[in-house]
Amino acid sequence: MSGRGDGLKLTPTELSAPFMNTEWGTKFPPVLTVDQAAELLQVPKGTIYDWSSRDRLRGCGRRVGKHLRIFRDRLLQKVFNEGLNHE
After folding, report:
1. Does the 29-82 domain belong in CATH 3.10.450?
2. Residues 6 or more apart from 11 whose CB is under 8 A from it?
3. pLDDT grade for 22, boundaries at 50, 70 and 90
4. What mean pLDDT is predicted for residues 59-77?
5. What is the largest CA-CA distance in the chain?
6. This prediction's pTM
7. HEC string for 14-75
């Protein structure tokens, strides 16, 4: 999921449109737990922790005590528009 060279760039509307539906909006609120983020991206939650520890999710979330909270739209923008492998 590098996001480079494939021409895929989602607009803010495209990123948020699926969550206007009540079911998806409830299941994946604007601030996600690690479990929700993993389910949304269809990856193991260990992958989310790994990306976070390697600073691949910079700008996508914050630690709240010992818990990681992730901003849904920023996460999707990072994955689809920027990629996780650029630094």
Report:
1. no
2. none
3. confident
4. 93
5. 38
6. 0.83
7. HHHHHHHCHHHHHHCCCEECHHHHHHHHCCCHHHHHHHHHCCCCCCCEEEECCEEEEEHHHH
